[in-house]
């Protein structure tokens, strides 16, 4: 849902805060653009909060909210966006995205401009509000403790999480998504699979053995790869992907479905037959609102492209319309 975005209650000018990753942005340029656009839109003086290795964005965003911010402009990568979303959950504070990372996954799925700071900031102050869904996940650790987090794009285990763990951060900073090629090769050499018990929407618990498990709020990745073809950010559902290719032909089948069926045929005259092809033993799709999973041993887990340690179980659900993001007014 998109609604016109009033700056703030009419009794005072709107207050915006910028939560930025100092490694990802040109702060001097960003300050100049934000000051110009905020003044033109009639907003008050902007607040500024930097992230740090100790705080990827949650505390910075909470400080912004405590200081009266109506809108938080998030300038950083996917990790910064996820952290700020975690902090604004349940507060009613709006977010705007200034894509500054490698993946920029939420911005891509919302079809926002990726490489134009002026346009992104203009949208922040003069765009409209769009309500999107937010994924929430309780992660149980090997020591029995539990932590709660959010994801705006995807949560994953298996090959997906191992790829994140094997990615060279220095190479990622220099070469972008090329850094994931090496990580994928290393991860494919790992013979271990996930042995998991799954309960979808409170139904019957089922056992599964898979290479990869992904829960997605949206499904588009860089390179025009549509990993979850039916995922929508505002349908109140997550899309579940279970990947279990067997041997070389199994991997070729998965590649064909992701790279050809999901990317090329969707929306074409052949679209009506895709549902029959997209789910089989090697690649299965389902949708739901809540998923409980119990692993046979601790496994790596990732949220929105960042590793989140090991999990022995998790409980994930969707909160429909829980996050308000600024998008262009059309």
TrEMBL record:
Q: By its UniProt entry, which InterPro entries does this protein fall under?
A: ATP-NAD_kinase_N (IPR017438), Diacylglycerol_kinase_cat_dom (IPR001206), Lipid_Phosphate_FormReg (IPR050187), NAD/diacylglycerol_kinase_sf (IPR016064), YegS/DAGK_C (IPR045540)
Q: Which GO terms describe its molecular function?
A: ATP binding; kinase activity
Q: Which domain of life is it from?
A: Bacteria
Q: Which Gene3D superfamilies match?
A: 2.60.200.40, Probable inorganic polyphosphate/atp-NAD kinase, domain 1
Keywords, comma-separated and alphabetical: ATP-binding, Kinase, Lipid biosynthesis, Lipid metabolism, Nucleotide-binding, Phospholipid biosynthesis, Phospholipid metabolism, Transferase
Biological process, per Gene Ontology: phospholipid biosynthetic process
Q: Which cofactor does it need?
A: Mg(2+)
- Supply the Pfam families for this chain: DAGK_cat, YegS_C
DAGKc domain span: 11-141
- What family is this? Belongs to the diacylglycerol/lipid kinase family.
Q: What name is this protein filed under?
A: Diacylglycerol kinase
* Species: Tessaracoccus antarcticus
């Amino acid at each position: 849902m998109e609604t016109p975005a009033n700056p703030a209650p009419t009794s005072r000018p709107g207050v915006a805060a910028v939560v930025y990753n100092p490694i990802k942005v040109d702060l001097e340029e960003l300050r100049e653009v934000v000051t110009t656009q905020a003044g033109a839109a009639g907003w008050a003086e902007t607040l500024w909060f930097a992230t740090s290795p100790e705080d990827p964005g949650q505390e910075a965003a909470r400080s912004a909210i405590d200081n009266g911010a109506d809108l938080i402009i998030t300038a950083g990568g996917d990790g910064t966006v996820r952290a700020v979303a975690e902090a604004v959950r349940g507060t009613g504070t709006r977010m705007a995205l200034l894509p500054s990372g490698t993946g920029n996954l939420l911005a891509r799925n919302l079809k926002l401009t990726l490489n134009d700071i002026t346009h992104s900031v203009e949208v922040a102050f003069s765009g409209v509000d769009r309500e999107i869904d937010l994924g929430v996940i309780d992660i149980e650790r090997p020591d029995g403790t539990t932590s709660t987090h959010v994801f705006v794009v995807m949560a994953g285990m298996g090959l997906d999480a191992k790829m994140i763990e094997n990615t060279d951060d220095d190479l990622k900073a220099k070469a972008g998504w090329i850094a994931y090629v090496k990580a994928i090769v290393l991860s494919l050499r790992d013979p271990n699979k996930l042995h998991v018990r799954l309960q979808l929407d409170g139904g019957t618990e089922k056992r599964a053995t898979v290479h990869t498990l992904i829960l997605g709020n949206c499904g588009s990745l860089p390179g025009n790869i549509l990993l979850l073809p039916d995922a929508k950010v505002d349908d109140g559902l997550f899309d579940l992907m279970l990947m279990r290719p067997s041997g070389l032909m199994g991997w070729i089948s998965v590649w064909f479905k992701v790279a050809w069926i999901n990317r090329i045929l969707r929306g074409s005259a052949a679209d009506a037959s895709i549902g029959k092809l997209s789910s089989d033993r090697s690649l299965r799709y389902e949708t739901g609102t809540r998923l409980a999973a119990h692993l046979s041993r601790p496994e790596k887990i990732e949220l929105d492209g960042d590793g989140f340690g090991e999990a022995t179980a998790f409980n994930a659900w969707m909160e429909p319309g829980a996050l308000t993001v600024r998008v262009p007014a059309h």
